Description:
alpha/beta, 7 strands, Rossmann fold, binds flavin mononucleotide, seven-stranded mixed sheet
Amino acid sequence: MNRRNFLMNAVALAAGAAVAGCSKAQDAVAPAPTKSKVLVAYYSWSGNTKALAQHIATAIGADLFEIKPTKAYPSAYHACTEQAKQEIAAGARPALAALPDFAKYDAVLVGSPNWWGTLAPPVSTFIENEALAGKKMALFQTHGGGGAQRCGQDFKTQAKGTVIAEPLIVSGSRASRSQAEAAHWAQGLGL
Ligand SMILES: Cc1cc2nc3c(=O)[nH]c(=O)nc-3n(C[C@H](O)[C@H](O)[C@H](O)COP(=O)(O)O)c2cc1C
């Protein structure tokens, strides 16, 4: 082997070693941290909180779950408000038709309409479930002009998981157009 061939072989060997070394190094690199598995669960009587929930779930690629009481609230507004008023005064926790598989999720974002200044009772039933212990939780809510009132505070008291953020509060009349706000809040949770 003349000096030129020797040098060329040496360069080729070094390049091969570098490539092999590179793939070894790649094998050794720790995988990127897995994203949290997030559930967006909501109760909605007239569709506003549902629209907000859909924007949030889309923004972060989360699963959606509708909280449904076994017995639906009356579809007439006045009858619904009267039943809700009585239930809230009595601290009722209406039975739910179904529950998600909580074990699949690290974080559960929960949506409620503001009902008489607080959470809708089916939402209270949902967030008090012991299976939420140890999960990250946050509230999003819609309202008819009253804003947060006691919703965020009651959420903190009732939720079995760890509340990780301040609630997202959206006027019901804007909920269907709240994509940007929903995405900003949900992506800012760092899940
Ligand atoms: C039973 C009942 C009670 C309500 N109480 C309040 C309230 O105290 N303050 C408020 O701002 N809006 C109140 N609202 C209006 C809802 O919070 C608002 O329309 C909300 O966006 C409805 O969400 P949904 O369409 O997901 O049911 C009430 C609505 C109902 C049906």
